[in-house]
Design a protein that fits this description.
Elements lengths: L12 H12 L3 E5 L5 E4 L1 H7 L3 H4 L10 H17 L3 E8 L5 E12 L5 E10 L14 H11 L4 H8 L3 H15 L4 H10 L6
Antiparallel strand pairs: 1-2, 1-5, 3-4, 4-5
Helix pairs in contact: 5-7, 5-8, 6-7
Amino acid sequence: MQATPLTEDYSGPEDRRFRELVDQSPFMLWSSGRDGLCTFFNRPWLEFRGRTMAQEMGNGWLEGVHPDDRQRCLDTYRRAFDAHQSFEMEYRLQRADGQYCWIRDAGTAQFDKDGQFRGYLGSCVEVPGPGRAAVVSPLTARELQVVALVAEGHSTKKIATMLGISYKTADSHRSRIMEKLGVHETASLVRYAIRQGIVRA
């Protein structure tokens, strides 16, 4: 399937560089505004869904959520939105081939320098559904994202940029991950990521 371009308002070299990083991310990324409506999806999301940016924008993405999960998904999002709090949830999302896959969606509330709520930045990873064999990970969805990026050879600085967090936060995630897994070197993190199927060998 041909990749769907993002938006047309990326003009400067920094914006283009950021767009490239977002589109090369191994995760499906999205954002929403102050009104709760989605304003952006990266290329992995659009390719997973097999739809265009215009089709997914606003509440269009909800068309892909399994009917049995849709209300729960909306309720979780609205509760977090009303409280301006971050959230994590799992639901089934329809893939381009028509199959439903379980997704873990983590949304982080965003605020401007004056403390005004700006909406959300979110990331999604595919997870095993109920009844499928899976090793329970001690890591959070965000930590799994960091592990995947470390395993792919990205530096802490680049990981921070790709996930839209500070260098200090990214470094903190990395240290906490190593502590949880009882490892002390990057090579061990890579082996863990391969064993757990987070990345391919």
